[in-house]
Every structure is written in C-alpha cells, then in structure tokens.
Specification:
By secondary structure, the protein is of the alpha/beta class. It contains six helices and six strands. α3 crosses α4.
C-alpha cells in the first residue's frame, strides 16, 4: 500500500480531511495530513481565502514541502481543491511520486510531469472554481506530458462535495469518489 500526502483545502485542516485520511488508512495506506496554515480551520470559503492570504502561499508550500520530506520519494501526492494545487506544485520536486490524486481542483498544470504518472481528478460538473475551458487546457497539458489521466465529473453537487461540513456536500457523489479513489490507490 501507499504512503499518501493528503493536503487540505483553503478551509484548512477540517474534520472531513481527517476522516478521509482515516478512510485511506482503513484501506491500508499510510497517510500524512499536515496543517498548512498552523491555525484552526474556518467555516466559509471567504474566511479560507482570507486565512490563505494571511498565512501566505509561500508558507503553505513550505509547510507542504516539509511534510513531504518526511515521506518516501514515491509517496502519492493528493489534495482537496487548494491542496490539489499544492500537490501539483510539489510534483516537480518529487519526480518519483507514485501518483497524483486531485479532489475538487486541478490546481493548474504542474511544471513537471513524468511520462506515465497516474493521475486521477474528481470534479463537480459544473464547478464554479474549475471552468471547463481550464479543465480542458489542464487535460491537454497533462496528456501531452505523458501522464496517465482519468477524469471523473459529478453532475449536480457543489465544488467541495466530499466534505459533509459544507453546503456543497453530496453524499452519493462523495461515496462514488471514494470508491474510485480507493481503487486507484490500491495498486500504488
């Protein structure tokens, strides 16, 4: 089973992230969930963006790097929304990553992708933070780089649909996401 670095969304290290880590651990994986803010999680996306601005993107990335240093080079990089972008940013520094699991966001095309890298993306359809044109551009870039990408779209729910603590939550879409993610991670 895999070592997984699971990075939280702009909301911070919420109970949903810790529950996701427990779900992955129950499947036999070793999961690290760093607090990229060093402050309590917030309740709204607006508060989350304010907290991100306060802490700073460089600090968030440095904290993710510090957590990654404690893991084997082949650890899976995974993230929720903002955390997906952080996972993608770490990819250039972790070329041996076993896979990239992106929940609720692409984070934009990473600077470096090794050919054959398994990538799984889960997005709401539509997603207010991930316009289709940007997702298409990301997919073209990842495919051109040789990544082995699978994209799963979920019609109807809001952006952060796997988090039961936010209005976007959709239980059936979340259950399907976790079934697919666990199958994807089983071979890592």
């Amino acid at each position: 089973m895999a070592h997984i670095l699971l990075l939280h969304s702009v909301y911070g290290l919420r109970p949903a992230v810790l529950a996701a880590a427990d779900r992955l651990r129950a499947a036999g994986h070793q999961v690290t969930t760093p607090d990229l803010y060093g402050q309590p999680a917030v309740d709204t996306v607006e508060e989350g963006f304010a907290l991100l601005d306060k802490v700073g993107r460089d600090v968030v990335l440095d904290r993710a790097r510090a957590a990654a240093r404690e893991l084997p080079g082949e650890a899976v990089l995974a993230g929720f929304s903002m955390g997906a972008g952080v996972a993608g940013a770490l990819l250039a520094e972790r070329p041996g990553a076993a896979a990239l699991l992106l929940l609720h966001g692409t984070g934009g095309a990473p600077d470096s992708v090794r050919p054959g890298l398994p990538v799984q993306l889960h997005l709401a359809d539509p997603d207010e933070y991930e316009p289709q044109a940007e997702v298409d551009e990301w997919l073209r870039a990842m495919t051109a780089a040789g990544a082995d990408v699978s994209v799963h779209r979920y019609p109807g729910p809001g952006h952060l649909f796997t988090d039961p603590g936010v209005p976007d939550h959709d239980a059936s879409a979340a259950a399907l996401t976790w079934d697919r993610a666990l199958a994807f991670l089983a071979d890592r």
